[in-house]
Amino acid sequence: MKIQELVLNSNKLDLQKNFYSKKLGFEIIEEFGDGFSIQTGATRLSFVNFTDQNTNYHFAFQISKEKIKVAREWLINRDISLLKETKTKSDLVMGKSLYFRDPDGNIVEFIGRSVEDRRSAFAIESVLRLSEIGLPTKDTFSLAKKLIDDYHIVPKDEEEFNHDFCWVGDDDGVLIVVKEGRHWIPTNCPSIASDFQIKIKVQGREYAFKSSKGEIENLNVVKSIV
């Protein structure tokens, strides 16, 4: 599975725009009335103005695991405060990660995977794609089953599913279905269901849906490309 486009809400849109385009250096590819879009490797990421909901997203950018050390230095040199670093032990999510917050308070991650990056140094162009988005819900099993049945996503290991955590996807792209209220690693911050729109590609087919209050609904297109 690959995430082609993700649309997130923001109640600090100007600060988000400055953070992602100036501080991190992602290219702004479109600005529209209530938001903007940046290109994050192979994924288009959009933020739209929405002041009626405090967001608490968790999402991850995929980089080469060989670049984790230099990516850490790169972030620190840009005065980005890192959260606790972790090395995962689960076979599902093997890799090392760097975590930080954006101006909206979302938990952003650089996740190292076994992918090639021929650059000698880290640059924002080293981000290959946005590869993870958290999806808190009240019933993890039911939502995970719906994602698998409706969008033909093949989980890396369905036997690892439990009532708190279902890893629906693979190393290229994953929907992290968690029990609402479960803390996002590496913080003590409980997850809440924050609305988003997404377009994914699975086995050559494209699907779009929106998540609202931890439930999903099919879409023909996502907002930023209407």
TrEMBL record:
Question: Which part of the chain is the VOC domain?
Answer: 2-113
Q: Which SUPFAM superfamilies match?
A: Glyoxalase/Bleomycin resistance protein/Dihydroxybiphenyl dioxygenase (SSF54593)
Pfam families from the entry? Glyoxalase
What InterPro entries does the database record attribute to this sequence? Glyas_Bleomycin-R_OHBP_Dase, Glyas_Fos-R_dOase_dom, VOC_core
Provide the protein name: VOC family protein
**What species does this protein belong to?**
Splendidivirga corallicola
Taxonomy of the source species: Bacteria, Pseudomonadati, Bacteroidota, Cytophagia, Cytophagales
